[in-house]
Write a structure and sequence with these properties.
Mean pLDDT: 77
Radius of gyration: 55 Å
Number of strands: 7
Oligomer: single chain
Strand content: 5-15%
Structural class: alpha/beta
Number of helices: 6
Strand order of the largest sheet: 4-3-7-5-6
């Protein structure tokens, strides 16, 4: 007995099919994400790839870190500016640091000795006119000679002092300076570095006249120091500039 069962492939052939044309067998459905063995990137995946990455400001604590960095930078700039200004001030003498030698030196002491009135003929004096009045130094020098003083130099000078007169000597001429102060009322004493016992008197704009000879106080006493402070008694420099 002959089996006349028709195979499934033939049963699916349409009636108008060309019997000479080979028939395609039905296969598996193609995967749209695969092409020739390679994976196909879909539109959503492509858009996700080119999407903007999150910026640093999206991270937690970003603002705090930026603020801290700004503060540190400002402090560094401030330190640099302060250092530059300080260096400029030191180089230009605006700020001065005492040296080790100066700090170890003993502080100068103004004379506090009680002096006797020395005889006029034992005093060697130089007279300088810083009052701006012509002939004043010679006039005062002549008066002092008449009182027995040994007058040396007589000349004009300048000074920023605005009182009566300035009396200047070294440490060896302090007694003689005390004598001159008794003859010229209202003077201030300064000490310089001279080694002899001579005395300078610098007549300032406030000078008017010598104390009358009969009224000169001959009692012992102390020097009248500069009113600017005890240390100034040793700070008189040349050219009559106390």
């Amino acid at each position: 007995m002959v089996n006349e069962t028709i195979p499934e492939e033939q049963a699916a052939v349409p009636e108008n099919a060309d019997p000479g044309k080979p028939r395609k067998r039905p296969g598996r459905q193609k995967d749209p994400t695969r092409l020739h063995g390679h994976r196909v990137v879909t539109g959503p995946e492509l858009r996700a790839t080119f999407a903007d990455a999150p910026g640093p400001e999206d991270h937690p604590g970003w603002f705090s870190r930026r603020l801290l960095h700004g503060i540190v930078l400002a402090l560094l700039v401030g330190v640099i500016v302060a250092g530059a200004v300080g260096a400029w001030a030191v180089m230009n003498g605006v700020i001065r640091f005492p040296s080790t030698v100066a700090s170890q030196a003993p502080a100068p002491l103004c004379p506090a000795t009680v002096f006797d009135y020395a005889p006029n003929n034992k005093v060697n004096i130089n007279v300088y006119n810083a009052a701006g009045r012509p002939g004043l130094a010679k006039s005062v020098a002549d008066q002092l000679k008449a009182r027995g003083y040994n007058v040396g130099g007589v000349d004009n000078s300048t000074t920023s002092y605005t009182g009566t007169a300035v009396v200047v000597s070294g440490s060896g001429g302090q007694a003689a300076a005390f004598n001159i102060q008794r003859n010229v009322a209202g003077t201030d004493y300064f000490q310089d570095q001279r080694t002899d016992a001579s005395v300078d008197i610098i007549l300032a704009p406030g000078f008017s006249a010598l104390v009358p000879q009969e009224l000169v106080d001959n009692t012992p006493g102390k020097l009248e120091l500069s009113p600017r402070g005890p240390a100034d008694c040793r700070q008189f420099e040349a050219a009559g500039d106390p």
